[in-house]
Amino acid sequence: MRIVLDAELCQGHGRCYSLAPDLFDSDDVGHCVLLVDAVPDGREADARSGAENCPEHALTLED
To answer: Which residues contact 62 (CB under 8 A, 6 or more apart)?
Structure first.
């Protein structure tokens, strides 16, 4: 599984990095930064939770 970020859609709500701080972080203005491209084994549910809770739909997952 891979995380894809559309940085233009991100508004910096912070839900992704609040839910999975080892997968997502924030930049200087609070927008999402990916810490990984490939989701580590066992972390799929957290990646999915981060993506599903993005109100701007800036995060998607690819198998």
So the answer is: 1, 2, 4
| Per-residue pLDDT reduced to its tens digit, 21-57 | 999 999 999 999 999 989 999 999 999 999 999 999 9
Pairing, β 2-5 against β 59-62: antiparallel
Domain at 34, CATH number: 3.30.70.20
The whole-model pTM stands at 0.93
Residue span of the structural domain in which 31 resides: 2-62
Amino acid identity at 20: A
Structure tokens at 38: 């490939």
